[in-house]
Amino acid sequence: MGLNNTLTARPREVRSSNHAKRLRREGLLPIVFYGHGLSGSQSLALDYAEFKLAFQATEGNRFLYTLAVEGQEPCPALLRDFQVDPVSRRVLHADFQKIDPQKPVTVQVPLALAGKAAGVERGGQMQQGEREITVSGLPSLIPAAIEADVTALGLGQTMHLSQVRLPADLTLVRTADLPVAAVAVPKGLKAEADAASGATPGAAKAAAAEKKPERKKTDKK
Q1: Residue 199: what pLDDT?
Q2: What are the structural domains of the chain?
Q3: What pTM was computed for the model?
Q4: 3-state secondary structure string, the chain?
């Protein structure tokens, strides 16, 4: 659940951008910490390897952490924003917000498709639309991921956001009923189905010609 991962931070001096670069070379991540119960924002530094490991972990939500700041009691924190190098994809800076554990937070949670769709059993191709959904709930109850059961999804069928069953303690924030999963019918499979039913393009044209009324010509006098 949320807050499973703990990050250790220490105070840092705020100088020039060169100082931040030096911190990164030393394997540290500059962060700003602010929010509930704090008198102002705090400039801190995290061990980058520790942050990366926690950010990629599967046992907790990647936006919620327990932040242990040197000289302070560990507290719940929300990763509010972060900057990424466009080339290396390394996180360069992050903002953490201290939150009240008794109040709901709004976060994004990965959406995982569970089960093998009936349509896939028949040769269809599973396509996933939304890969994250936005939910609201108490920090300690936010899961690492939410599963959507697609077992009953047949050929050509689509599952929408409103059909995803959420844990009882969570509320869906995004209201647009977007498609989250669909079983597409491959062209080859569709042609095979058409052929089996006798609905080939040639047969369809012939049937249309048979049904088309014959036009009678009248002699002009």
Answers
A1: 44
A2: 6-100 (2.40.240.10), 106-195 (2.170.120.20)
A3: 0.75
A4: CCCCCEEEEEECCCCCHHHHHHHHHCCEEEEEEEECCCCCCEEEEEEHHHHHHHHCCCCCCCCEEEEEECCCCCEEEEEEEEEECCCCCCEEEEEEEECCCCCCEEEEEEEEEECCCHHHHCCCEEEECCCEEEEEECHHHCCCCEEEECCCCCCCCEEEHHHCCCCCCCEECCCCCCEEEEEECCHHHHHHHHHHCCCCHHHHHHHHHHHCCCCCCCCCC
